[in-house]
Amino acid sequence: MSDRGPKDLLTRTAEDSRCSGEGRFSLPCAFRCAGEGIRYAFLSQRNLKIQGALGALAVIAGFVFRISQAEWLALVLCIMVVAVAEVVNTAIESVVDIASPEWHPLAKSAKDAAAGAVLLASIGSVACGLIIFVPHLFALI
Ligand SMILES: Nc1ncnc2c1ncn2[C@@H]1O[C@H](COP(=O)(O)OP(=O)(O)OP(=O)(O)O)[C@@H](O)[C@H]1O
């Protein structure tokens, strides 16, 4: 049983950190861990690869159609919102798999809700994509 108080548990110590020998988790270390998290989500989630490919296509279309600054803002935001939702979904899946390797209704609810968040972000992004690109496509006709 640990003799650390609740406040201590909020502070990462050198003993806790597998990455840094210093008392605090160094900034480069924190960035590296975040990068590893994104890499893990990208490699383990087929959906993230598909979403990444669609996002890249949307960026290419943005250059082709010379979309406005406001349209770029919406496009970048949409791509990032979907990516963030998918990375958080990956984190939730991992935590659920640790906490509840066996079938449990709450584990199901947690994973389904996380997947639902990705779906909502994706639907919103498709809608934004249509709002941005359909007028540009019609302008070609
Ligand atoms: N421990 C569990 N208890 C109950 N239901 C579960 C459990 N693990 C998974 N499920 C159900 O199976 C579904 C798929 O879970 P899984 O872990 O395979 O996610 P996934 O297929 O990798 O999802 P994604 O496509 O978002 O990556 C969940 O949405 C949930 O309904």
TrEMBL record:
CDD domains cross-referenced by the UniProt entry: UDPK_IM_like
EC category name: transferase
InterPro entries with a match to the protein in the record: DAGK (IPR000829), DAGK_sf (IPR036945), UDPK (IPR033717)
Pfam families the UniProt entry points to: DAGK_prokar
UniProt keyword annotation of tRNA processing present: no
Molecular function in Gene Ontology: kinase activity
Family membership noted in the UniProt record: Belongs to the bacterial diacylglycerol kinase family.
The protein's name in its UniProt record: Diacylglycerol kinase family protein
Native source species: Adlercreutzia shanghongiae
